[in-house]
Design brief:
Shape: globular
Helix content: 25-40%
Radius of gyration: 15 Å
Strand content: 15-25%
Order of helices and strands: HEHEEEEHEHEHH
CATH architecture: 3-Layer(aba) Sandwich
CATH class: Alpha Beta
CATH topology: Rossmann fold
CATH superfamily: NAD(P)-binding Rossmann-like Domain
């Protein structure tokens, strides 16, 4: 749990992040981090039973209700710690490779169960903070870049 190499590998290889507890309110951390993930080039799948769409993306009531044809690479959890066990069961059923339990979200038993089922876990960690701390480059398919103006990550850093 909280292994830097596994966190790095998950962030570098992921394409799709399901954000459980995603809010449509721009003032909420889940909304801010979802926007960051979109800008970094990830596909974001919002999960919130109270909404049909968030950030222009279809929103699903639960992780279990995301259609099977949508591959989820990371689940980012913005729910109270007492909701994690049910989310862990859904992540295991979907065979999600990695789960972030955001800052303040702690359930050691659920985290252990996920790890026993082959799921990497970052508990009490913020995906945005980890992304920045590990200097993960934006994905080349960033939704905010048009094909005509796409700039390589090398040139962004001034090395080419």
């Amino acid at each position: 749990m909280n292994e830097e190499a596994k966190i790095r590998q998950a962030l570098e290889s992921a394409e799709t992040v399901a954000v459980v507890g995603c809010s449509p309110n721009p003032a909420r951390p889940s909304n801010d981090i979802s926007r960051f993930l979109l800008e970094a080039g990830y596909r974001v799948v919002p999960v919130n039973p109270g909404h049909r769409e968030i950030l222009g993306e279809p929103c699903y009531p639960s992780l279990a209700e995301i259609p099977d044809e949508i591959r989820i690479d990371i689940v980012d959890v913005f729910r109270r710690s007492d909701a994690v066990a049910a989310i862990a069961e859904q992540a295991i059923a979907r065979r999600v490779p990695f789960v972030f339990l955001q800052l303040g979200v702690v359930d050691a038993r659920a985290a252990r169960l996920m790890e026993e089922n082959g799921i990497g876990v970052a508990m009490d960690r913020c995906i945005l903070i980890e992304h920045r701390r590990l200097a993960i480059a934006p994905r080349s398919n960033s939704r905010n870049e048009s094909p005509k103006t796409r700039v390589s990550s090398l040139s962004r850093h001034g090395t080419t």
